[in-house]
Design a protein that fits this description.
The complex is a heterodimer of chains A (221) and B (218).
Chain A: H1 2-17, H2 19-39, H3 44-67, H4 72-77, H5 79-85, H6 90-119, H7 127-152, H8 159-185, H9 191-220
Helix pairs in contact in A: 1-6, 2-3, 2-6, 3-6, 3-7, 3-8, 6-7, 6-9, 7-8, 7-9, 8-9
Chain B: H1 5-10, E1 14-23, E2 26-32, E3 35-36, E4 41-45, H2 52-60, E5 67-72, E6 75-77, H3 82-85, E7 88-91, H4 103-113, H5 122-128, H6 144-157, E8 162-166, H7 174-189, E9 193-197, E10 210-213
Helix pairs in contact in B: 4-6, 5-6
The chains are: A mainly alpha (221), B alpha/beta (218).
Chain lengths: 221, 218
């Protein structure tokens, strides 16, 4: 437990020290969302139709931008070796890194969500579902992303491969989260989609640390 | 005080049996038998590229050997087994020091990751390595030698039986080398062991490090 807290605290500290770099995904997200109405059409009917999808595509790509930070620099400076040689269970350390990554990237999205919903003209009644979908969906993005980064940490130019590996696994989150927000905007119940997002989060948060830990051992050897 | 004689005679702490390692087509070493007894420093010798670092990484479980096995206290263990990891402190080429954290923060993380802390506090460890004044400045602002000292300070704050040190004297000045020598001496006097790769002669007073060379594979 001590190791979990120490690693999470360390990663958050590093995110704070690299404020500009850490804020990058959120800025990217805001820019994408601000440009869509300009590029397509600012008409309310069009926006209402595409807003949930645009929101989640932006969130997905923003997360993808921030993933590399999770293990790459630790791989380069030998910190990762330290974690692998440590007697503390590696999946626990990986889970700490996933939690820290979510706090540094998922949480800011959550805070910015009401503003972005306003920019996209999402009806106010869908805001609660949008926030619920973010709470349930973004941890899955961090957890599944960890597997991808762990697999590509040892490669010099792993960025492209990382997107290829991770994006297909992100699709269920995109489909269910966007559909939940669409349903809520249309005044329909969204519980089913939210349950599925919850199930995905539970599954990925329990299994991804194990998979990422195994991937890290392969990457380092 | 020298370690009890029978301990090193009866059972080595760590032993490799017919260890082999190949990188792709190239064989680095074959059938390597290395044993490390309690209270002993083993210095691994070999030309550049002979596989010294690889041997240490295999002992730490960072890399699987392509053949042979490892015995810990006479019992065969999988490379990187938990009982092995809880008794090993590894300081490699890449020191595992985060440049944007201070030495103190770096050590706090190392202690949390280690099996158990020693009685030495972080500040005492940094002071011993002569970087006590720099405990609060980011490692990025330190020199190469000072960064190496931060990495080595781990050895003082985290308790373990076996120190695995890859070129620990890199970038250190004469003073630093003497400090590390003294730390090694205290470690083996307390019954610990170490395996070190170094081109620098290790001076341990009455204790002579036992050289082990990695022969060039045929």
């Amino acid at each position: 437990m001590n190791a979990f807290l120490a690693v999470a605290r360390r990663d958050l500290l590093l995110a704070v020290r690299h404020r500009a770099e850490a804020a990058n995904p959120l800025l990217f997200f805001l820019v994408v969302v601000a440009l869509v109405p300009l590029g397509l059409s600012p008409r309310r009917e069009t926006l209402e139709l595409i807003a949930p999808g645009v929101f989640w595509i932006g969130a997905l790509l923003a997360t993808l931008l921030s993933l590399e930070r999770m293990f790459r620099s630790d791989f380069d400076d030998g910190s990762l070796e330290l974690m692998l040689v440590s007697p503390q269970p590696l999946p626990l350390i990986v889970l700490a890194k996933i939690v820290a990554h979510w706090l540094a990237t998922g949480l800011p999205l959550l805070v910015a969500a009401p503003l972005i919903a306003l920019l996209l003209g999402l009806p106010a009644r869908s805001l609660a579902v949008l926030l619920a979908a973010l709470v349930l969906g973004t941890p899955t993005l961090s957890a599944v992303g960890a597997i991808g980064v762990a697999l590509t940490a040892g490669l010099r130019r792993g960025g492209m491969l990382l997107s290829l590996l991770v994006l297909p696994l992100y699709i269920p989150v995109l489909v269910f989260a966007a559909s939940a927000v669409s349903a809520a905007a249309g005044g329909l119940p969204a519980a089913g989609q939210l349950y599925l997002l919850g199930a995905l989060a539970a599954l990925s948060l329990t299994l991804a640390p194990l998979a990422a830990a195994a991937a890290l051992r392969i990457s380092v050897s | 005080m020298p370690p009890p004689e029978h301990e090193s005679d009866s059972q080595p702490l760590l032993e490799t049996v017919a260890l082999s390692c190949a990188r792709g087509e190239r064989v680095l070493f074959e059938n390597l038998d290395v044993s490390i007894a309690a209270g002993e420093v083993v210095q691994v010798l070999g030309e550049n590229g002979s596989g010294k670092t690889t041997l240490l990484r295999i002992l730490c479980g960072l890399q699987p050997p392509s053949g042979g096995h490892i015995r810990w206290r006479g019992r065969e263990v999988a490379p990187g087994a938990p009982e092995l990891r809880s008794e090993i402190q590894y300081v490699g080429h890449a020191g595992g020091v985060k440049l944007d954290l201070t030495p103190r923060e770096n050590l706090d993380v190392a202690i949390a990751l280690g099996a158990r802390p020693t009685a030495t506090t972080v500040d005492a460890a940094l002071a011993r390595l002569d970087i006590g004044m720099l405990g609060g400045s980011p490692v990025r602002t330190l020199s190469a030698g000072q960064r190496q000292r931060v990495a080595l300070a781990r050895l003082l704050t985290c308790a373990s039986l076996l120190w695995v040190l890859d070129e620990p004297f890199t970038a250190l000045d004469a003073d630093g080398v003497a400090t590390i020598d003294a730390m090694l001496r205290e470690h083996i006097e307390a019954g610990g062991s170490a395996i070190v790769t170094s081109h620098h002669p290790v001076a341990l007073g009455q204790v002579t490090p036992r050289p082990v060379s990695i022969p060039r594979a045929a």
